[in-house]
Write a structure and sequence with these properties.
Blueprint (H helix, E strand, L loop, with lengths): L5 H21 L3 H26 L3 H31 L13
Length: 102
Amino acid sequence: MQLVPTQHYLILAAVLFCLGMLGVLVRRNALVVFMCVELMLNAANLTFLAFARERGDVTGHLSAFFIIAVAAAEAAVGLAIVIAVFRSRGTVNIDELHTMKH
């Protein structure tokens, strides 16, 4: 059985991270920005898991589990904030949200 080299996982993680970063920098919709941040966190997870597989220990798995927990909390809190902003302002476009008070 031939295993996939670690470099392939790292290249995929780098591509995913760059796509997420590009989405955060270019897109103006808050929901899309949150999805791009999640993509970046998943790229970091893939990197941790690739190195854990190469080293044969569980440290990378623990780090990935912690990142998944942080991502879930970020998604819940972020989505609640986006819903509250949409109810008060009527938009989730980042360019239109200049100040915190309305």
